Amino acid sequence: MLPDMGSTIRLGKILGIEVGFNWSLVFIYALIVWTLAVQAFPADVPKQGPLTYWLAAALGGVAFFGCLLGHELAHAVVARRYGVKVGGITLWLFGGVSRLDGEPQSARAEAVIAGVGPLTSLVIAGLAFALAFATSSAPLVADVFAWLTYVNVALALFNLVPAFPLDGGRLLSSLFWWRQGSRQRGVHSAVRIGRVLAYVMIALGIALTFTVSPINGIWLAFIGWFLLSAGSQEEAGATIKAALRSVPVSAAMSSPVVTIPDWLTVGQFLESVAPGHRFTTYPLHDPSGALTGVVRLGDLVKLGREAVDGRLSSVARPISDVPTARPDETLSSLIERIGTAIENRVLVFDKGQLVGIVSPVDVARLIAVGQVSRP
Questions:
Q1: What residue spans of 82-182 are helical by DSSP H?
Q2: 306 part of the active site
């Protein structure tokens, strides 16, 4: 499964894009630094002090992750230029992932968004090669740049493997999309090819495990399993998105909506109001009837005892931060427009009147009971 930005350590924003890293990156960084400091650099540039090797390895590891970030930023920046909302970038075990909350509107757009990543890695490799040549008088520094040249070329080639979630899988999908006229069909065709490749990798990995190299065999089999799982997720996601294109928000929303006075205390709400309703989300209104915010039952239950006497208005999410929709808007366009913000619930307005609330559970229930039919 791909990493979730919610499970990462956030580093901040670059070009307005949220960047973070998954905890698995710590172990990969340690492995890279140890390999360079103990094996690679001493073999390539002998007679240097241990501290020098470790320092060069530490800087090389940081530079490598900078290269990964450059690869993902290229995806994200180009995606935004094509009107696709970018939820964030996560660096993790297998390198990095740009989370796109929408999808490209054409096969050409998907191809460009996917292809710019490997192209960026090759450009970085070219720069690193030039720097390795320019710093040849400092052998250890040149070796760091030579290593960066190698890993960036490897990164570009690995990402061109035709399997999801790699760039090669998306390039293949865009080709099928262009030829077959449907993104869903394109994804389905690309996943079938990627699935065959994944099974081959798993089989080779098992063979290597019990013959030549157990460690390399396990890694190859694990990567094959990951590609197999990611391909199934991509195909399921494409099928659901295609199905939701014809479903209006009104089909998923919970209605009617119960609004609560924002001057009630948390304790009063939990004791007197919440037990009488089945809802988990409640919009708040002021004495004039204007909406002021939204509270979620699960969030209120987690508050400490000291918050019981506080007003609901003090713990509510401001109404300006809550996404809105129209009842006739399709669910697919809503999800592409707001992305993961649907987790905070969506208020549905019809001609200025609040008529419903949409949550991820509502959408999942709609799909589960079969109200969404596949095209």
A1: 107-134, 139-159, 167-180
A2: no
